[in-house]
Amino acid sequence: MSGVYWGLTVLDLMGQLHCMNSEEILTFIKSCQHEFGRISANIRHDPHLLYTLSAVQVNTNQNCNDLDSMFSYFRVGN
User: Fewer CB in 10 Å around end: N or C, the chain?
Assistant: First the structure.
């Protein structure tokens, strides 16, 4: 997940972010999502706060407005 973030950041800096398929990226992130919105580094890996942060950054970079499920991880009471 961190590699996805850094790769997309470099593409964005080079003005080539449009070359990536946003839907495929967001589908990959959702496939790494676990209970309460936590994200893992890859499919079938354990979730971690670092990868959750990377996923939030990628979603923000991709102008995704569907962050509620990930933010549930940070809400008090979960």
Answer: C
DSSP string, 35-48: GGG-BBSSTTSPB-
Q: Which amino acid is at 8?
A: L
What is the reported pTM?
Answer: 0.77
User: What span, in angstroms and rounded, lies between the C-alpha atoms of 11 and 52?
Assistant: 21
The answer to whether residue 78 scores a pLDDT higher than 70 is: no
13, exposed or middle or buried, with CB in 10 Å at 0-12, 13-18, 19+? Answer: exposed
**Using an 8 Å Cβ cutoff, are 70 and 59 in contact?**
yes
Q: CB atoms < 10 A from the CB of 51, how many? A: 22
Q: What is the pLDDT of residue 73?
A: 56
